[in-house]
Amino acid sequence: MKRRVVITGCGIYSCIGKNMEEVKHSLYHGVSGIGIDPARKTYGYRSLLTGIVERPELKGLLDRRSRISLAEQGEYAVAATLEAFGNAGIDADYAENNEIGIFYGNDSSAKAVIDAHNKIIEKRDTMLLGSEAVFRSMNSTVSINLATIFKLKGVNMTVSSACASGSHAIGLGYVFIRDGLQEMVLCGGAQETNFYSMGSFDALSVFSVRMDAPQKASRPFDASRDGLVPSGGAASLILEEYEHAVKRGAPILAEVAGYGFSSNGASISQPSDFGSETAMKRALADAGISAGEVDYVNAHATSTPQGDMFEAMAINRVFGAHKPPVSSTKSMTGHECWMAGASEAVYSLIMMQHSFVAPNINFEQPDEYSARLNIATETVEKNINVFLSNSFGFGGANSALIVKKITNDE
Amino acid sequence: MQRTEIIRIVNNFLIEEIEIEESKLTDDAVLKDDLSIDSLDFVDIVVIVERNFGFKIKPEEIMTEVPTLKAFYDYIESKMGDR
């Protein structure tokens, strides 16, 4: 029999709030975290739009070695993880004496790499990079640093799967626990926001240039959308085997019930309605539920013309006549890329805990495809027992998660 | 550069950048054991010395030949004198 996997802790650090409470407020009230980064102009960006994320103050919380080894996104991940372990009731003693694993989504560490490159060009001597450059530059920078800081002793791995990284990290944590390989895994995703990190993405002209109205720029599914807005931060979830959590007296927030994945096997940049559909159907089948049981869909929709269209087609095919409320929280947060799959699971979980569907802000005019969806344009008071969260990335990397509410009689 | 100035600069970066408590900075303090300076810290000290004094040191040289803080001041002073 497959073991059940529950979420016993959550933490979030994003452009719409630095903790669960702040983010709940922003989601409920449809608050955007998007702004302008003037420095991007000097670096040659086409779009200056970005999620505005303040760096957390970690001095006093972490020792010097731990702090200097962290890249920007690692700092966000520490802040989110402190909150997640805190509300899961896990302290340093527990971590020292029990095995906790980590799967964390991350797919770049641009600033660390470019800073090191610039230093080598200036000094022509690698000895002058200092001790921290390597630990900040590696793609695994977030997972290796978190594992060190929080004394984790289980599986230790970064998941790099483009904009599905964070979702796959949760999916893999779920599989490892379900199959008896781990009892508890820290899962999540992190994304840097510095001006080096998005230059190559900006080069594709897929970012919104609605710079006269930053908070109107991210408008998933809207007919007048002109591109995505990059953003970042980190989200952490503590996944735990159900009986283990009960025995520990842990707060059980919800159950990870299904994980679906697929690869489009096609374009490096173009999404696919078929690939998206496969991931969603596989997640539903894994959870053993029908599409009609899903109360809310957190869409991947990033506000690009093509991506939103293909996802709308796929959602329509999967859900048919049953039209659950759909929203893309990227309308408020922008596209949190490597982090998005994890943060959107957290955003949806917040909605589940507080019985509301957050609005897809800036959705004013549907297009031919989004007109067929039940898109929440305002906050909807609604009991959510089951949600589906989609994440799709470059190279056709697709992931979908199904999360269920745990009822008191279980 | 005067020795007092070398001591001031070294102590300042040990306190501010390596985050060692000022009270531990005595002449006979052993770098590894009393100040807990590890192999990664020595890599950082290479960078800091280059920035403050303008010359490069070899971390393996410091780790093997410079046991105490006083010996470290002496080492910097002698390197400065060589310039």
Structure description:
The complex is a heterodimer of chains A (410) and B (83). Chain A has 410 residues and is an alpha/beta fold. Chain A has helices spanning 20-29, 39-42, 64-68, 72-88, 92-97, 110-123, 133-137, 141-149, 165-178, 199-202, 214-217, 242-248, 273-287, 305-319, 330-333, 340-354; strands spanning 5-14, 34-36, 49-51, 101-105, 156-159, 184-191, 233-241, 254-263, 296-298, 325-327, 356-357, 374-375, 380-381, 386-393, 397-404. Chain A has 16 helices and 15 strands. The model of chain A has no long low-confidence stretch (mean pLDDT 97). By secondary structure, chain B is mainly α. Chain B has helices spanning 3-16, 39-53, 59-65, 69-82. In chain B, helix 2 (39-53) crosses helix 3 (59-65). Chain B starts with a helix and ends with a helix.
Q: How many extended strands of chain B?
A: 0
Number of strands of chain A: 15
How many structural domains can be distinguished in the coordinates of chain B? Answer: 1
How many angstroms separate the termini of chain B? 11 Å
Shape of chain A: globular
Helices of chain B, by number, come to 4
What CATH architecture of chain B would you give? Orthogonal Bundle
CATH superfamily of the largest domain in chain A: Thiolase/Chalcone synthase
Q: Which percent bin holds the helix content of chain B?
A: 55-70%
Radius of gyration of chain A: 20 Å
- Report the sheet-strand fraction of chain A: 15-25%
Mean pLDDT of chain A: 97
Contiguous low-pLDDT stretches of chain B (5 residues minimum) are none
